[in-house]
Write a structure and sequence with these properties.
Layout: H1 3-17, E1 22-31, E2 41-45, E3 50-52, H2 60-73, E4 77-82, H3 88-91, E5 98-105
Antiparallel strand pairs: 1-2, 1-5, 2-3, 4-5
Length: 107
């Protein structure tokens, strides 16, 4: 496991220990031009704090929105971003890449 992933998990664990609600987003699959490899993670708190990265910025806003929904509902989500996805240009993947991100609430 890379130091970056361990840092995100340590940060998320610290936030949970402090009483924050935390969602964890993990890149599960990539294809083509993708700024982050599978296994990359981002933690998001209910109060809006974030650590880590799943895309180098291009889809982080959409992933953070999904994380907030997961925190509200408790339901995990598998997000799919790419050239065939209608939001590809909007979220910044017009370069031809595809990324799948799993979002789950930490308990």
């Amino acid at each position: 496991m890379s130091d970056h992933v361990e840092d995100v998990l340590s940060t998320a664990a610290g936030w949970r220990a402090a009483g924050e609600q935390v969602a964890l987003a993990t890149v599960t699959e990539t294809w083509g031009s993708s700024p982050r490899p599978a296994g990359s993670q981002m933690a998001v708190t209910k109060s809006g704090r974030m650590a880590g990265s799943v895309s180098g910025g291009c889809i982080e806003g959409a992933v953070a929105e999904a994380a907030m929904k997961t925190l509200e509902t408790g339901t995990p989500q598998l997000l799919d971003f790419g050239v065939t996805h209608e939001r590809a240009w909007e979220v910044g993947l017009a370069c031809g890449g595809k990324v799948k991100v799993f979002v789950e609430k930490l308990s």
